[in-house]
Amino acid sequence: MEADLPEDIEALRAFALEQSRKLADVMVAKGESDAEIERLQSIIDAFMRHRFGRKSEQLDPDQLELCLEDI
């Protein structure tokens, strides 16, 4: 990797700035992915409660349809 780095200071600064922007983009994408995972996990949890929960914990079928509309 060292051999790939620019030698002059301005090129190094530009390289560092580019890497910083790429990292910021990756962090935004990770945040979006984490939010989607959390949303899908809550839907899975609702299905599990509906399927395996005690009668008092089970969802009304109409409520389940509302969850499915979000997908």
Nutshell version of this structure?
The protein is mainly α. It has one domain.
Task: Describe the protein in words.
- The chain has helices spanning 9-52, 61-69.
- The chain is mainly alpha-helical and 71 residues long.
- The protein has one domain.
- It starts with 8 loop residues before the first helix and ends with a helix.
- Helix run count: 2
Query: Radius of gyration from the CA trace?
Result: 23 Å
How large a portion of the residues is in β-strands, by DSSP E? under 5%
Q: Identify low-pLDDT runs.
A: none
Write the H/E string, N to C. Answer: HH
Which term fits the overall shape?
A: rod-shaped
Major β-sheet, in short? none
User: In which range does the helix fraction lie?
Assistant: over 70%
Number of strands: 0
Ends distance:
43 Å
| Tally of structural domains | 1
The structure class reads mainly alpha
What is the average per-residue confidence, as pLDDT, rounded to a whole number?
Answer: 85
